[in-house]
Amino acid sequence: MSQLTEPAGTAATIALLAGPDATASTLYGMYDLLGSAGRDWEFLTNGRMGVPLLKPMIVSCDGRGFRAPNGAWIEPDAALDDCRSPAVVCIPDLFIAPDASLEGYAAEIAWLHACQAQGALLAAACSGALLLAEAGLLDGQDATTHWAYCEAMARRFPSVRVHAQRTLVVTGEGQRLIMAGGGTSWVDLALFLVARLVGIDEAMRLARINLIDWHQDGQRPYAALTTARQVTDACITRCQVWVAQHYDTHSPVAGMMALSGLTERSFKRRFKAATGMTPMDYVHTLRLEEAKQYLESGDDPIDAIAELVGYADPSFFRRLFGRRVGLTPSQYRRRFRSMRLRLQ
Predict the structure, then answer these.
(1) pTM score, whole prediction
(2) Distances 190 to 9, 15, 212, 213, 312 between C-alpha atoms, Å
(3) Residues facing residue 122 across a β-bridge
(4) CA–CA dist 128, 237 (Å, integer)
(5) I need a surface site. Which of 146, 303, 321, 340 has the fewest CB within 10 A?
């Protein structure tokens, strides 16, 4: 892993971009974790505050405080014009809908281009990657974002190669574009930045201090496979409503087709156009989501769960679950069943 070159004894500046849609949890979580590099391990092991090795600062368009979408108050350290040469720019996640417009971010986009031109490393957590894509900085590059935003990113920015299953993507010239997936994978991003800027040993120390586990299985185990019901085709909507109650039957696709009154060819064409999925893929999606619920909430044998959701062949169910979810049914149960029990 290459490291950015900084003057000896100088803490590298990491500008955390606080746009109007910034979420306070990720913004201040990254601020705290990055700022603890070099400081906290010495304090915990020797009782002396160490020397911070990174300098996170919160920047916004005008530098004035504002309310985050959840009501938390965000107080930037500087305006964009006062932060012209950070070593790293990081965009925390944005509390926006996947298809929301980013046209109000013109000043931030211009600043991102200026920082990149001066050699800054650009990073984004979760939906913050949408701003990099909007700026054209991901054209022709690999990328990731929160699993719920991946389809929208791929559709809105077709030149971007979106990897929905990956927790972390490092790409671009000199590997100066870094993106983390959804939720708390911002922690993975922060640790990677510490390793890149300071060193792997310090990143490992922070992981031990904060009891951090790397999201090595990617995003798929956490992703909801289902998509929202479409409303543009009333005939297909009726079929979706019906199959939500009958996905476990022997021939749910045939049942939908009979309900639609369409020919097989017309039904499959209209279903794919309306939902973006083939009818059988849609049925698999419903079945696997229901299987997840059984695995999380009960102790039924996996072969029994396969039958409950409509699969006569348990081995096929296990293979399909592994491909779609990224974990075997047993692995999924171990991870999420214990989590659910602890939360009860």
Answers:
(1) 0.70
(2) 21, 13, 11, 13, 45
(3) 89, 177
(4) 33
(5) 340
